[in-house]
Amino acid sequence: MKEKEQRVIVKGVVLREGKLLLVKRKREGHEIDKKWELPGGKVEFGERLEDACKREIQEEAGVIAKFKKIDIENYQSVFFDGVRYSHLILIPILFDYVEDDLSYEGDHNVYEVGWFTEDDAKKLDLISDNKRIIGGVLRWKLD
Fold first, then answer.
1. For residue 61, is it within any domain?
2. What's the distance, Cα to Cα, between the start and end of the chain in Å?
């Protein structure tokens, strides 16, 4: 029997002058390696959703952001069936851009960080569940 795992993942939706913050994370050997996605990650035990997301945005993209709201209406429930049967609950959280973190030296798990308009984002290789989140939260038409 496969090991089962369920995780809550937060996804940061940060806009700056009409552009959306996206990262291209390293996932070597996985189908989503080198695809663009919203910054985010696991919520640690006892951590508030907005605090986890703010931390992940700063760690992955070097951006300091201010919490705006949790958008539970546009969450995604994703299943992966591999070595481990995983159920990921992706929760989008909106933030206002504050400033770049001047002490940021890059994240070893991130290939690239960028800010994209809706038209730019249409041309990117985005992870499909992130596409659905962006479409739901921002009403961007990415397909």
1. yes
2. 37
Residue 17, domain extent: 3-138
Tokens of 30: 């996985």
pLDDT tens-digit readout, 81-126: 665 678 999 999 999 999 999 999 888 899 999 999 999 999 999 9
Residue range 42-66, pLDDT digits in tens: 999 999 999 999 999 999 999 999 9
Q: Is residue 65 part of a domain?
A: yes
> How many domains does one find in the chain?
1
pLDDT (0 to 100) of residue 73: 95
Residue 143 lies in a domain: no
